[in-house]
């Protein structure tokens, strides 16, 4: 999941691309695993991280 976060934050890849690169054939399953791990969906996680940078 750390690699997924890195790709989302730094490589400007979309969620489908990240899911595929992490070995998930289903984007929705990747999102559910991500949410179980971080407590947020990838989009919500990104929004929260970007808010931190702005402060």
From TrEMBL:
Database matches in Gene3D superfamilies: Homeodomain-like
InterPro entries (alphabetical): Homeodomain-like_sf, HTH_AraC, Tscrpt_reg_AraC-type_HTH
Membrane spanning residue stretches: 29-47
Domain of life where this protein originates: Bacteria
Entry GO MF terms: DNA-binding transcription factor activity; sequence-specific DNA binding
Domain HTH araC/xylS-type: 1-48
Keywords of the record: DNA-binding, Membrane, Transcription, Transcription regulation, Transmembrane, Transmembrane helix
Protein name in UniProt: AraC-type DNA-binding domain-containing protein
Lineage start: Bacteria, Pseudomonadati, Pseudomonadota, Gammaproteobacteria, Enterobacterales
